[in-house]
Design brief:
By secondary structure, the chain is an alpha/beta fold. The chain has two domains: 182 residues, Rossmann fold (3-Layer(aba) Sandwich), CATH 3.40.50; 79 residues, Putative methyltransferase TM0872, insert domain (DNA polymerase, domain 1). 39% of the residues lie in helices and 14% in strands. The two termini are 39 Å apart. GO terms for molecular function: rRNA (cytosine-N4-)-methyltransferase activity. Specifically methylates the N4 position of cytidine in position 1402 (C1402) of 16S rRNA.
Length: 298
């Protein structure tokens, strides 16, 4: 199964500060690039658990006694690690990008480059697909999805056009959706706007924001003292949540301060924001929007 090189490979794994006998988790296994790098740095007594909800990723499983691949969404990380008798780990890695494989397989419906059925499910067992969002959500719900997850100012008008068009016939494919929204796609920025539309629908289909929040909230409990969290985000919605959680231990508002103006947070930022070099972006264009943040358990 063809997967491209993982983004910020060295930097992300370096961020885990790997101990030879440690226990680590790669919650976004994909093609296994990050996992392979972690295993290279682990000793015989080390252990690596990986998560991936996409059945295609299971074909990349690694034959290594120190490795276990769990076919589940990372939002259930605590529950499934407990099943293996693991309550605390030394490091957790997450790369929240859609895998190159998912983009490159036309029938999965993730890419604006291909004619495909509206699908976009990372877990093929899920009932909710892009078709359901486009054809069964109310106008208000579609507007909210496009506004919140795509940050599209034309969201109300787009939602209205989608609902009017599907009355005539269901919108089944990516080309049909593109045709319905043609007037919102200026020739110079067509790909950019389409990418925002696809991103919004994909996030809704896969409940990505809810899964990210649930995952982050479990990490302080799972990490041993001094353990590391290494996270790559690709759009501002995700990065904002990761940044706020590391800084404040919460996603909104400010934590309660004591009389001296201090507040306690479970994680502490390690280093600054890391982004790909120009060389990496040249080799892998999909890395251009990647942002890596690293935190340590206090």
């Amino acid at each position: 199964m063809e997967y491209h090189n993982p983004v910020l490979l060295k930097e992300t794994v370096d961020g885990l500060n790997i101990k030879e006998g440690g226990v680590y988790v790669d919650v976004t296994f994909g093609g296994g690039g990050h996992s392979r790098e972690i295993l290279k740095r682990l000793g015989d007594k080390g252990k690596l658990f990986a998560f991936d909800q996409d059945a295609d990723a299971l074909e990349n499983t690694l034959e290594d006694d120190r490795f276990v691949l769990i076919h589940e969404n990372f939002r259930f990380i605590k529950r499934f690690l407990r099943f293996y008798g693991v309550k605390k780990v030394d490091g957790i890695l997450a790369d929240f990008g859609v895998s190159s494989h998912q983009f490159d397989v036309a029938e999965r419906g993730f890419s604006t480059r291909f004619e495909a059925d509206l699908d976009m499910r990372m877990n093929q067992q899920n009932k909710l697909s892009a078709f359901h969002v486009v054809n069964e959500y109310t106008e208000e719900q579609i507007k909210d999805v496009l506004l919140q997850y795509g940050e599209l100012r034309s969201a109300p008008a787009m939602a209205s056009v989608i609902v009017a068009s599907r009355v005539v016939e269901p919108i089944k494919t990516s080309e049909q959706l593109k045709g319905v929204l043609k007037k919102f796609l200026p020739p110079k920025h067509e790909n950019k706007v389409l990418a925002q539309i696809y991103q919004a629908i994909r996030i809704e289909v896969n409940q990505e924001i809810e899964a990210l929040k649930e995952f982050l909230l479990q990490t302080p409990d799972l990490l041993k003292k001094g353990g590391r969290l290494s996270v790559i985000s690709y759009h501002s919605l995700e990065d904002r949540l990761v940044k706020r959680f590391i800084r404040n231990g919460m996603f909104e508002g400010e934590p309660e301060k004591d009389v001296f103006g201090n507040f306690e947070v479970p994680l502490k930022k390690v280093g600054g924001l890391i982004v790909p070099t120009k060389e990496e972006v040249k080799i892998n264009n999909r890395s251009r929007s990647a942002k890596l943040r690293i935190a340590g358990k206090l």
